[in-house]
Amino acid sequence: MNNSLFSMDDPDRYTYDPRTAPPDFGHAVRKFWGFEDDYVNLNHGSYGSLPLPVLAQCVKMSLLAEKNPDRFHRVTYMPLLAEARRQVAELIGTQNEEVVLVPNATHGLNTVLRNIEWREGDIILGGEYLSSVYAVPCIKPTYPVTTSLDHL
């Protein structure tokens, strides 16, 4: 097993300067993940591996919360969340109020789909991910919908 993930031999793997241009996608960003050298990750969505700079920030936030959980949850957390939403809104070109942070894509899709007033005969159009794998099977027992893949 490659233990390079647990060493700080290359500290640049754990940090990224957002004031600089991001690296190109592909091999240039691989160094920001803790994958073993001979591992080719073809299914990122199932397990949600974090880039090491994100993982390092998560650890930092967890330690901050553990230092004084009451203060973190009552005082510190909401301004941090508001700032994260502001940055995402700026990145995608929308208003802060339009940004909602969710734990993962399935949670987000389920939140949206469960807040639509479905009627008998409604059809959800979408690819395999949306229609058959994660989100729709969670709502179909409750709502009278079919998907574009139900007819195949």
TrEMBL record:
InterPro entries: Aminotrans_V_dom, PyrdxlP-dep_Trfase, PyrdxlP-dep_Trfase_major, PyrdxlP-dep_Trfase_small. Residues 53-125 form the Aminotransferase class V domain. It comes from Hermanssonia centrifuga. Coiled coil: none annotated. The keyword rRNA-binding does not apply. It comes from the Eukaryota. This is Aminotransferase class V domain-containing protein. Residues 1-20 are annotated as: Disordered. The keyword Transport does not apply. Keywords: Pyridoxal phosphate.
